[in-house]
Amino acid sequence: MTMQLTTSPAGEVIATTAAPTPALRRRIGVRQTIANGLTLAWRNIMQLKHSPEKLMDVTLMPIVFLVLFLYVFGGVVAGNTHAYLELLLPGLVGQMAMFATMSLGTALCDDIHKGVFDRFRSLPIARSAPLIGAVIGDTVRFCVVMAVLTGFGTALGFRFHTGPLDIIAAYALAYAFYLAFCWVSVVIGLVAPSPETVQGISLIWTMPLVFGSSVLLANTSTMPGWLQAWVKVNPISDLADSVRALTIGGPVGDHALVTLGWAAVIVIVAFPLAMRLYRRRA
Questions:
Q1: In the chain, domain spans
Q2: Is the pLDDT of residue 192 over 80?
Q3: Whole-prediction pTM value?
Q4: What string of DSSP letters covers the chain?
């Protein structure tokens, strides 16, 4: 019960009681959460439209890595650059997908320091919407890096040897893995003390995954035993082998399922962790 003060026509103050007003509680459902996430994803895409220089890394990285690895290792690994290009480009799909996620953590950490996420928390939106929007909006970076890698590789002489459905499946698998690792980048962005440190933290765990895999070499039998064991359990190896089989031919085996399994495990672990860190940090 609450006490209210009113004034009578004679000017007397009268105290009356009123029923308590129930607190307003509004549960945001899955549909509204998705809508909020897509809205904030569009915000991130518009930022790229007005600041295209943010895409410079994913535009130049595939060209630099493709030229560097092709002409440095091509003759040694495959005898000539043309033969090595067919092995290298599908492997670089996995590597570029990994490297492209790094900027997400940097941008997220920068937004937190600028107070952008404080404003998000004051809005009547789902708590997870800002993080979901950041991950979905980063799809533009994936599309750019894959388009540049494939286009430049084709100009150098790369050719697909499988059908359109297999090619689409290869890039869809890479995209699913990319989205999963975006959540790892989100966690790093929430943990890092400053935007400048995100790249360094990301490289520490990304480099062993990328270069300790079958990205650059389809045949890893010449590696030391301990490194071969690491390559076999490395999810980047399964992704690279899957993309190779789906783009230039060969048995896919269980590599695609293992890649999807890794992606699911990463999301199951990283998404709740990201939400807990977000509640504490933002």
A1: 29-281
A2: yes
A3: 0.84
A4: -EEEEEE-TTS-EEEEEEPPPPPP-----HHHHHHHHHHHHHHHHHHHHH-GGGGHHHHHHHHHHHHHHHHHHHHHHHSSHHHHHHHHHHHHHHHHHHHHTHHHHHHHHHHHHHTHHHHHHTSSS-TTHHHHHHHHHTHHHHHHHHHHHHHHHHHHT----S-HHHHHHHHHHHHHHHHHHHHHHHHHHHHSSSHHHHHHHHHHHHHHHHHSSSSS-S--TTS-HHHHHHHHH-HHHHHHHHHHHHHH-S--TTHHHHHHHHHHHHHHHHHHHHHHHHHHH-
